[in-house]
Amino acid sequence: xxxxxxxxxxxxxxxxxxxxxxxxxxxxxxxxxxxxxxxxxxxxxxxxxxxxxxxxxxxxxxxxxxxxxxxxxxxxxxxxxxxxxxxxxxxxxxxxxxxxxxxxxxxxxxxxxxxxxxxxxxxxxxxxxxxxxxxxxxxxxxxxxxxxxxxxxxxxxxxxxxxxxxxxxxxxxxxxxxxxxxxxxxxxxxx
Amino acid sequence: xxxxxxxxxxxxxxxxxxxxxxxxxxxxxxxxxxxxxxxxxxxxxxxxxxxxxxxxxxxxxxxxxxxxxxxxxxxxxxxxxxxxxxxxxxxxxxxxxxxxxxxxxxxxxxxxxxxxxxxxxxxxxxxxxxxxxxxxxxxxxxxxxxxxxxxxxxxxxxxxxxxxxxxxxxxxxxxxxxxxxxxxxxxxxxxxxxxxxxxxx
Lengths: 191, 201
Fold this sequence. Notes:
The complex is a heterodimer. By secondary structure, chain A is mainly α. Chain A contains 9 helices and no strands. Chain A has one domain. The model of chain A has no long low-confidence stretch (mean pLDDT about 85). Chain B has a two-stranded antiparallel ribbon. Chain B has one domain. The mean pLDDT of chain B is about 80. The interface between A and B is large, with 44 and 42 residues.
């Protein structure tokens, strides 16, 4: 049990997927202008990442490794993620319309979110067991949400500040992300 | 107004240079630019995928129904990424190990998918090739520049062909912040700022 807690903490804080592993930076900058979109994106990522993490682990262990097809991993994983996103979208539209409306356009965007694909590949690279992969996927998604929502809060404040012209928009956002990353950096060596 | 082939090529080098003008595909940009060599390696791999996928998307654009085009693009791109992976394993194994999961992650690099969607699906083969090559070389240059700045300030060296060359005198304390994670964000932000300054002159 204790091992899983340590794994979760290390995935959320120390190896934070956005700020320490640099995965999923496009939606990080793209959807952090407003708190509302940041929350929507985080929820969608939690949803898809857990399912994708479990799905790709099963496919890798029971199909690819069993038949020695590891070289097809990239293609197999992206197809799993793309079809999963499509499936989740249709399912939510039919059965939970409120959640579907909330997530809106963020669901299809997740297909090209490298945080999802990256986390799946890390699960395989670290040779996690099924339960570990499940915990790691969930924690990575939580870490993603945490960093994204914190960043959106900071960015809303920046809108009120007077920023020098050449630094405006993406430039100041990146510098801010650097400072945020510095705070997460302090967790290094904790576990 | 239709652009000439040369213009399609050169627009990738300054006008639309990723990741500065098109803020896409940031993940590999931030993650692999600890040294110049990694940056160039990643850039060349991405260029290969970009040119290949642009060529095939443009070749098959009449046959791909527009409803399932994204899925088709992804399969074409994934095929080229697998090719790059196998080629790098065979010929540049140390670099392959250093770049790690960022090679398979070219599949979800928004630049590649973005060019297929925004350009190759609507234009002829020759123009798509020129566009892919231009954007790819622009991306490589940007990665190399960022890698050079970070490595020079962070370690005082520049790495080519796996041999670090000492540029700054060893007596100067290197600014290690630059090669750590936070430095990547700050360095890219400041480079973007510099580019805006040059542009506004």
